[in-house]
Here is the input.
Amino acid sequence: MNLEKLHSVYFVGIGGIGMSALARYFKAIGKEVYGYDRVNTNLTTLLEGEGMNIVYTDDPQAVSADFLNVPIHQTLVVYTPAVPVTHPGLGYLRARGYQVVKRSEVLTEIIKNQKTIAVAGTHGKTTTSAMVAHVLHNSGVKCNAFLGGIALNFNSNVILNPEAEYAVVEADEYDRSFLRLNPYYATISSVDADHLDIFENAGIMREAFQEFANKVDKRGAVLIHSGINLTANAKTKTYSLDEETSDLHVANLHIEAGTYVFDVIYQSKNLGTIRSPYPGHHNVENALAAIGIGLELGIEWEKIADSVATFKGVKRRFEYHVKRENRVYIDDYAHHPTEINACVGSVKEMYPDKRITGVFQPHLYSRTRDFGDDFARSLETLNELLLMEIYPAREEPIPGIDGEWLLNKVRMVNKKLVSRENLVEEMLRLQPEVLLTMGAGDIDKMIEPLKSALDDEDE
Here is the structure.
């Protein structure tokens, strides 16, 4: 790939959060950007407003003539593994001789001349990578960042600096994409079983993470959450919320007026106190990983502490939409049992005396099947549950695996399977004190209707 000689780039699945970051990169360096996505979303509308040409049908005839008229050697087609191999538009472009590559290949090419800070783990990648990017940017360290969510400090999923020395990226384990990266620094937050449609079992998945850890440059460092049994050729540091044998851990953690306050202990030395407005014990650990990267880069402690204190968060990661005395509405991307446990646990810590009404949209038939019992146990930590049907994403239905199947596993009285059409009505019927929506599918399309209904109710 010679990216400099490209005139036009076509993205198949341009509305994906990782794909859109790359699309924005190419637009920023002066390339013409075209793309396809299955549905028109707020993000694709923004991309169109930024000058990108997007179609919403997989009919090959819909591919822009302006793109097809560019000499093939000046074009590139990028696709995401979430797009099925049978996609007609992708097949059409392949058959015509276009260079077709995966998103991870392009990302690796873009950042090849920068020191890569790769954030890995089955949970927490987006928040941690956004925190790392904010620590660097806020401290004056020149960096690029390609994020898996909209970082509220930048109101974007990409940071671009033509003089960047570092590149902050999410190291996505799905489809083993992270093995294409050549990290100089890395963090690994968790290796919980997931994507078993790809990895077959937890042992094979762990082997992939071990391979990733081995790829970290010997001159750099890797920060690994305590309890994860991985080794690395690079310098290894451990971090944990409360494991005192870790290189990085926390002391004196408490909440003051909704703000998490804690001391950071690094190799037995108390570096100072952090005040973080971003809730949840899991986010304190994410902050520790970002702090660890900052320390490895030699950033002054005062700048690191200020960066954590001014981190605004990421859209759809414990994002408040209503925050009143009598009513709270939080939306979160949680789509794995471990993530649900962390999210609900954080809500309970913030609002110990409130009734929590959860709306959950399962993501993928295979994940629902593989973790059905675990999902049920995590959802039982809610006071009330409104369960939506499974969001299929890239999958075909699996016989017998549906919302009713999962609901029957949940051992609680106040539960109900709801449709998109009656979700708002059912939510209002319950009169929630704290409403929590969770899922990685298209549940975000229900945020505004739910928020508006609560606002109208409270007028």
User: Anything to note?
Assistant: Residues 372 and 406 are 6 Å apart (CA to CA).
